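User: Second chain of the day. Same drill as before.
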Amino acid sequence: MTNSTFSIVITLLFLIVRCPAVHGQLDTLLIPSFSTPVDTLNENSTPSKEGIPQNILEKKTKIHSPKKAAIMSAILPGLGQAYNNRYWKIPIIYGGFALSGYYLSDNLKNIEKYKNAYIADIDGDPNTINDSGYNTDDLNTLIDQYTQWRDLSYIAIGIIYVLNILDASVDAHLLDFNVSEDISMNISPTWMPLNNRVPGLTLTVKL
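Assistant: Same format as last time:
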């Protein structure tokens, strides 16, 4: 695995984690039922900013558990994404594993090949022949290079595995993050609390 290929694999997996998952956020919260008897809305109920009693809002439960999503992806990569209904991410994750695994296998084969050629060149046995076309110095260089690429392949597999877990956890958090569609801005006149009270403007943004 070359440095450029390693960078491509990591970049693709990083984009999975950074991909926004807010388009389905509002549908993932249970809407509180207003069939609650009127006597439960007593004077002890604390109104929320939306005008809904706090004791009703507290009954909302999350559908998606970030911890559960992370554990599922740790046990089997892609399982947390399936739990979050992000099925399109699963082929990308396994594509990253497959690409890293392919380069890992290729690097291991080349290390073995050039090590055998090196041994054949220095063992003094006429029955073993170095047919690689490289001398011992070149073989040492090739072994070191493929060993470095082998290590990068292992690192890539580890990073993909960790990103797979982080992505499942972050996605589950975002699915339960309520973004209000009622975003408004209000500008109203006010008096500034200075020595000589002067007129000003108050800017209120409702999210």
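DSSP finds six helices and two strands in the chain.

User: Great, on to the next one.
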